[in-house]
Amino acid sequence: MKPGLRPVFPFSAIVGQDDMKLALVCAALDPTIGGVLVLGDRGTGKSTAIRALAALLPPMRAIVDCRYSCDPGDSDSWCAECRDRASLGALKDRAIAVPVVDMPLGVTEDRVVGALDLERALSQGVKAFEPGLLARANRGFLYIDEVNLLEDHLVDLLIDVAASGENLVEREGLSVRHPARFVLIGSGNPEEGELRPQLLDRFGLSVDIKTPTVLADRVEVIKRRDEFERDKPAFIAKWKKEDDALRRRIVAGRKRLAEMSIPDEVLESTAKLCMHLGTDGLRAELTLMRAARALASFEGSTAVAETHLRRVASSALRHRLRRDPLDESGSGARIERAIQEALGP
Ligand SMILES: [Zn+2]
After folding, report:
1. DSSP calls for 247-304
2. Could you tell me the residue ranges of all domains in the chain?
3. Distance from the CA of 183 to the center of ligand 1, in angstroms?
4. pLDDT of 325 over the 60 cut
5. What is the CATH number of domain 3-59+97-209?
6. What is the pTM of this model?
7. Which of 171, 218, 249, 283 is catalytic?
């Protein structure tokens, strides 16, 4: 069965975990927010949520026979092959599901970035490139479970590519570049390995998820999961209306994003809050602003208000605080306090 057609647990049927759902929706709405880091216990449905989100998004148009699923509507982002073929005649396109690519632990760099066949290049004079996971993730999501256990050089590489939107592979004087725009989703359990501050800072949003402690929620989680496992099509049909409504809000939110205005006083509040918390550089402010704007767009507002800012502040800033970033409960409380002190109750 094709991966896009596998039955996926409906996003709307996920019980609770509102911070995570909101962060994922914001990142899907505006990919420039820069990915989401989901920290928490095992078995809290992190990977279910990301798959559910991708399945919820409307299919996208992609150029037929392109190994990078180039966007027919954005010729600036095309790979070299699409550019060459376009000069010879019109390109065909088709609808494809938004890709979710898993990055397994222990993966080789060649498998991630793609492999250049030097032997063929030397013997036949052709540039033979076998695309890797980054090619498959173009325009979709790249999911790394247990990002804290991934080798440092791979993490650095992924973060650089995610920021530039382009994968450049160079071997022995040969080089290939192709578009690789994706939303990086990392998940991890902080108890199982350190996350370097440099890594934390490069994720746009960070959320902390916990196993539900309310009895009724736990029961509901089990109930829905069991119902899904027993009859997937029926369960998906049951939640279709809610998923459809959510999809429409995301699509409308994306359209609204370009016209969304941010009043100066909201920008001032953004800067004030970041100054108060002592976050380094502009990244924190930009991310906070973008996340607030995505939230406002998603909710159908015409302008960003301070209330939007307050609601995304924790996700946008908690992983950028200077002290122990793994002390999540502490950092969340610290941000709440900073909001009160810098912006008032
Ligand atoms: Zn292409």
Report:
1. HHHHHHHHHHHTT-B--HHHHHHHHHHHHHHT--TTHHHHHHHHHHHHHHHHTT-SB-
2. 3-59+97-209, 259-343
3. 19
4. no
5. 3.40.50.300
6. 0.89
7. 283
